[in-house]
Amino acid sequence: MLRDYLRRPLGVVAGAFLLLVVLAVIGAPLIAPYDQLKMDLGHALSLPTRAHPFGTDRLGRDVLSRLLWGGRVSLGGLAEALSVAFAIGVVLGLVSGYVGRLVDNVISRSTEVLMATPGIVVLLMVYGISNNNSHWGMVALGVLCSPSVTRVTRTAARAVREEVFIASAEVLGMARPLIILRHVLPNVCGPIIVNTAVLGAVILGIQGGLNYINLGVNPPAASWGGMVSDAQRVLSQQPWLMVPSGATLTLTIMALMLVADGLRDAAASNRSRPPRSRAPALRPAVDAGATPAEPRAALSVRGLSVAIGGLEVVRNVAFDVGDAQTLGIVGESGCGKTVTASAVLGQLGAGFVTEGEVMFGGVDLNHAGSKARAATRGTGIAYVSQDPMVALDPCFTVMSQLGELVGRHDRLRGAMRRERVLELLRQVGLPDPADTAARFPHQLSGGMAQRVSIACALAGRPRVLIADEPTTALDVTIQGEILDLLRLLQKETGMAVVLITHDLGVVADLCDRVAVMYAGEIVELGEVGGIFERPAHPYTRALLASNPIASRRGAPLPVIAGTVPSPADWPVGCHFAARCPYRIAACNERPVPLETMVEAALHQVRCIRAGDLEAVTGGEVTA
Amino acid sequence: MIAPVPLLEVSDLTVSYSRGFGRPPLVAVAGISLTLGHGETLSIVGESGSGKTTIGSAILGLQPVTSGQIRLAGTDIAHLGRGPRRAFRETLQAVFQDPFSSLDPSQTVGEAIAEPLRVVRRGLPPTEVRHRVVEVLRQVGLEPAALNRFPAEFSGGQRQRIAIARALVLKPQIVVCDEAVSALDVSVQAQVLNLLEQLQREEGVSYIFISHNMAAVRHISHRILVLYRGRVMEEGPAEDVCDRPAHPYTRSLLAAVPVPDVAAQRERRRLRALSLAASPALPATGCPFAPRCPFATSACIAGPPPLTDIGGGRRVACVRIGEIPPPGGQPALEVTR
Amino acid sequence: MTLLRSLAARIAGSLLLLVVVPAITFFVQGIAPANVAKGVLGLDATDQMIADFNHRLGLDQPIVLRYLHWLGRAVTGDLGASYTNGQAVQLILAPRLGVSLSLIIGALLVFTIVGIVIGVLSATQGRLVGRLLDVVSTVGIAVPNFWLAVILVVAFAVAIPIFPATGYVFFSDSPPLFFLSLVLPVVALAFAGITAVAKQTRDQMLLAIQSPWARTLRANGAAESSIIYKHALRNAAAPVITVIGTIFVGSLSGSVVVENIFVLPGLGSQSLASALQADLPVVQGIAVYFTIIVVVVNVLIDIATTILNPRVREP
Fold this sequence. Notes:
The complex is a heterotrimer. By secondary structure, chain A is of the alpha/beta class. Chain A is built from 22 helices and 12 strands. Chain A has a domain at 2-28 and 56-271: MetI-like (MetI-like fold, Orthogonal Bundle). In chain A, helix 9 (176-212) runs antiparallel to helix 11 and helix 14 packs across helix 15. Chain B folds into 3 domains: 1-91 and 176-243, Rossmann fold (3-Layer(aba) Sandwich), CATH 3.40.50.300; 98-171, no CATH class; 246-316, no CATH class. Chain B has helices spanning 52-60, 82-85, 109-120, 126-139, 156-168, 186-203, 214-220, 238-243, 248-256, 262-272, 298-302, and strands at 8-17, 26-36, 41-45, 67-72, 75-76, 92-95, 174-178, 206-211, 223-228, 231-237, 308-311, 314-316. An 8-stranded mixed β-sheet of chain B has the order 6-7-8-3-9-10-12-11, with helices on both faces. A 4-stranded antiparallel β-sheet of chain B has the order 2-1-4-5, with helices on one face. By secondary structure, chain C is an all-alpha fold. Chain C has one domain (89-313): Orthogonal Bundle (MetI-like fold). Chain C is 78% helix and 0% strand. Chain C is built from 12 helices and no strands. At the A-C interface, helix 5, helix 6, helix 9, helix 10 and helix 11 of A face helix 1, helix 2, helix 6, helix 7 and helix 9 of C.
């Protein structure tokens, strides 16, 4: 994480500044040019000079020295308060986050009470009864600020609690304190440290304010807040004095916040980092035998390539879907099928570059403006996503969301809109449309939510429906129902369906044609029956063979050695060659084009040996 | 392959959760019994809400048991506290579903695999620990170079292998695999299934394989237990249950699993149309599957159907099992090529 | 669970604070009674004078008993009497409540409205504006409110005399002057809050705009303006309002300093004066007032989040 942090220039500068200040303050006895109390009335209220780099105050005392000495008070107090807050907060947060509900409730309620306490009043009381003792004050401030640490720690600990490796440790019979120490604490450090930095900034500000009104300091001893107060008193005579005192506080607080930001970003970037390509992206060769876009098809994609950060992740995808037809795009994780769907929908974020044609209704959506795109959304091309529980806005009822879409597409209002919503809900097979419409998304079961999602997609009467793993998150019996529903809707409306999935069984159930993707490319494309009976591409064969359905019990499953190459590691030639049992030298030499197999006109394969293999193995699916 | 004295014997296990004031408790597992022998794989299958994960958690001691017994090598561990349970750590281990959450990201692979040894066999000298760790790492097909790397540097399939290594380092007799391959791609899943089988041949370890993936279950199990809403619907040898399912729920479950064979799918669709849509309402008495069962009669909701023996080591919880058409003409899970 | 029932539960929880928090502050001050006497009577007070003083004011009784006495009277509205001049605490504080409220609520309105507007704009206007806001945010939160107050006075009350530098004008006396006298104090108090609210609003809006449900709505034809101003805003509302609550409680502390600088006769400036004199009944009375304000705001926030976020309604 440190390495990631050091990559952010702002964070590095802020961190360096902070370090400088801390060192300077610690070393005040050594480096301060003057004693903080040494008066020089002859040179009072002077602007910066060589003798006094930050000027002098009303009693002629050197401002720089007072800043350094005052820093010990200010930063020392900060350290006291922060340590107290940290100690209380981390311990309570860990216990509250990990141990059972009763303890958690007690600690959470206490934390809430503490947060609601008007801290300033308590602080005033503490200063009042302790004779303005700064240590008491800082300890009290630490206690009052501990709820923030407790909450962050608790939230992080709760999240870690749900992780499977904690269950694994419990199965091992590890004692609870040991689990907290060894497994929870290292994994909650990140958010805690970030929060501590922010808290430090807040405490410094509060303490400054307290010092400003002369609490916690005993003049003539210097403190940063106190120096602002001194400066204010002589404001009309020497306005400059406001600057060093205010700037020191502001810059230090700012530095703490920037350090916190840097740490937060560094921790986040740890998880997701797009791979940097080593070689420049190759211009994809146009496939031999590539036909121009099919005008009769509902959706026709040609030469679709997607790159992010200069790295190609999808290469040269081409397919057609006709009306009332279903095309399956199948592949394993990392093959690029979801990126392909997002590219067709125009939903890729900034940083993605999409090339190729996406022909719909005679318009190339990829190169048309955003208005043309917007016109197709819902009415031309609609979308159903994978996880129904997050596909619906949690804050609005089904009636409201579906109604909004209906209102937009059909321009209906009031009772007519309501009727259409109920009609759509009936169409997707919900037994009690009125009841479902009144619910919020979190009150629906998985199957119901997916049906509602489909209803939302149907609201615009689309010509093409793109369904991204619509059944993966559902139980297998519900899955069958949703597939039946999609088939029924297709028959009723004549819409084309593009189904993204990893499950070959789903493809066999619902799809007419299928495109098999591997490492960003389509490796085989054709009618489902033909491909499943006589798979031409070695990857397709291996995929079908490794499905345990087809196995002989007791014998090991045929496996594909090796792993899928990530986009940064795509070879020049066939992407599958390294794992292919049939590879020859020619496979690695140049990109392999997608070619139509001789026998079946609509069956395409990206393999230079497809013809030989057919003859050699007769289409038998063996390892 | 069932040894005369079962390694694990669960009797009449019930697990229920309270749901707060005035609401009846949620019964996740209702009176389930099962046995597991040496070197055997028993699969527990079901959909969400079937209770299969709860049974796994109860056996592992992660979930308190309301009533019933879990006899491990003769001792009832169902109601043991954390302390007494420690004696069974070398007998009973687990591999869980999510490969991205099953390993502590702050620990190296070597530390993760060594941890069971350090926690359970405290006195073991470091050289022996390392020796055993390398040994088990090789067994799961990874190089010793992996020891000093962090889980984030490995793929999902590799992390599952590491999790399996960690489960096996103590040479347990039973490993509970809770959806251990469900989050993996098909090709990676095949590798891990092969590994599990190989380890069973080499070490004689038994598995409780909890899954909703019928294809994987069919391949790897010796016996299968089918659960629905916390009760056993059917139990028997894997081939029989998959190829000739008896209980109506098992039939509908198998019919719902899509297979990559167009003709077979068409046939399954026809059967899907026969069974009724799922309804969330649970009947107060009787068979939990009755609201969805195409063969249900009034006899089915009279009382919970007992688990009856139908021969060949098979038991079915259906009062009408004698009357409904025999499991002959059903499309089996087998795909003919 | 219905809206009303879950609201009632949360409100009940908040009301508990009214009892618990004053108890805490009472016990805090009970720690060192000897210092109280010294503070009032002077450092050279003899032990006999201290003992008399403590006995007269009942400070030599066990603290739990004193608390119960205090609580008994407080419930009827009698908050005791000042140690310094014997005046009833209620009489001292009641006139000051309005002043503090005008400052605090003014600041609340300013940082809420301005913060949310800036946050929404920054989330929807593109990356440059977003980065700009990040910088301004960090500076804005870092500038100490007391320093800023002085600068504001110098700039807008002295150099360009638009606003009064100090002093408070009651609304009943002169509405326009009332507002004028509040401008600088409210800005000083609200400044840091504006940037914090803006930042949180922006973060939450971006989260919502990029969420799976927003993608689905967009893909199925919902208008972008609806996604931003109806859906994202609604989803962002609950977390933003929660942050506003936290900032508000913090601004109570800030009000002490701000009232001091601008010489506003409110609870904050009184609390400082009384604390320095160890006049604890008055400080305790202010604690009660502040707690009531916090509880009222907490309840309003609870109501708002429950209405805005349907998932919260379930237990």
